[in-house]
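Hi D.,

Good news: the full-assembly prediction came through. Inputs first.
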Amino acid sequence: MGRGVIIHLEVYLPYRGERRWTGEVRLPEGLTAGALSDYLSLAEPELAVLVNGRYVAPETRLREGDEVAVLRQSEGG
Amino acid sequence: MEQMLRIDMNSLTARFEALPDAYRLLGGRALTSRIVAEEVEPTCDPLGPHNKLVLAPGLLSGTVLSSSSRISAGAKSPLTGGIKESNAGGNTGWRLAQQGLRAVIIEGQPAPGAWYIAVIGKAECRLEPAGELIGLGTYETAARLFERYGKKAALAVIGQAGEQRMNVAGISNTDPEGRPSRICARGGMGAVMGSKGLKAVVVLDPGPNVSPEMSDLPLWREHSKPYLQELRTSPAVARYREIGTAGTLELVNKLGGLPIRNFGRGQDPATEAITGLHMAEVIKERGGLPSHSCMTGCTIQCSNVWADPAGKEVASSMEFETNTLLGANLEIYGFDAIAQFARACNDLGIDTIETGGAIGVAMQAGVLKFGDVDAVMDLFREMREGGVLGKLIGAGAATVGRVLGVREVASVKGQVMAAYDPRAIKGNGVTYATSPMGADHTAGNTIGAKVDHLDPVGKVAISREIQITATLLDCLGFCNFVRAVYGTTAADIAELFRARFGVTADEAFMRRLAIETIRTEIGFNRRAGLGPETDRLPEWMRETPLPPHNALFDVPDEELDRIWAEA
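Then the structure:
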């Protein structure tokens, strides 16, 4: 593994002891959007992972400086 | 024998009719739209004597099967000029189905100034003078009716907005605790009810353990269980029990599609103050209800009850669309203010989406300032009292834009969009444009699709399939959130249909039911003068970029025009 990539992460569910967590995270190089939830040990299924404000294909590799948000999938009624 | 009830407000008579064979396998939206299409002249004045208001529970309504007893209200809409079906939770649909009624058709008009209450029981319906209820809000109206008819009755009432025939007026249905807060909100169905001189429909309690006729009760019981189990265990449903629909705000904000400052931008860090996560925390701290069933038996429990700092109930329910259109869209970032607005809207009996959209347009015109909570409360008072500005807001966002010279009105067929800006959530733009209902997210909400919502490619197909499923659920009487488990429970739902009607309803049958309903509605709209040129988003949304993505709505018109040809 190289030095990895640093992303800006927002987690809109309990993470690291907080109800909502924001910060910089160093990830292994080549980690994909689809693998992020497992890497962060987020147990909830069907989470929405947005990269720079949009859904991306799960195989998309996260890159240095990406802004990533992890949220619960939801819709209005 | 299942029946329809026809109430003639001209002669002040009511009669029960056998349900025609052609209607036997129609319910909810399918039945309201079919009756409106067959009995209402499409070019008629929607607030005149020739329009008809149809109330219909869903095909599978009338038992405590979770999330299955929504009530559909249908008519020609005074807001869109086309056909409308608006549905809601609460207990009205459940009680009507228990009384063996598949539809209530309200027609004609009484003498000017005359107001009535329709009281519906087993094989009887009487019209009583509304008397002292006129001029009251929905909460006081409901309280007095419960006192008179018992707390187990279900009510559908209008507030002062419906009495004034405002386009934003809905029909307010009572929830299991009696709150008149489950509103058939969209499209001015409350104005149509007001135009009939009808303040309230009271559906009496038929007594314990009454259900609609079943073809095969054991089969119904057998297939209720796996359906219920899936609703209880599905992660896609469980999240609504934690923070309701309000958690959608953070998702749509991050996608850059949240209506902020009259649809002026799609994202703002200030919205952090009105996220679903924050809302759930405050509700718990104050002793409100973070989850709540809006209809008897519902296990989804997406509703909630907001309380003030002293723990006193203010409003139910704080929904994503309400928090956005009456919050972010007005640059008001405080739940206590939004809850006051929601309470005022519920009491007036109005659509929070259309009202928030209309106020946003008025703010853009400079009539009041963005962020001014007191000025918004003054507007609600003006609506209650019938002031000119109140009546203007009550006419809806499109009229406000025309009167005040604002081009940036986010509406289709005169109905304002919900809390998803179609420049960033393009599938919802397709739904807004092509649904016969006008800009209505519940007609086909694509936000749950894990796709790039900024890319126009493929969004017509996604919208079409979701519109078909949403329409089917509207016909069956199910809540929209059942869509989250429809893929895994379709076979059980088909068996429930067979248990109820003795008819096999395979996938092709269900799909045909939905598509034929949509085609019936489009046919009415065309005859009403709403041609394909009205199946469009406003021109400015193709020209004015939406920050932060600077997105435009760019799904080609030709693709919009083909959506139903390819169904």
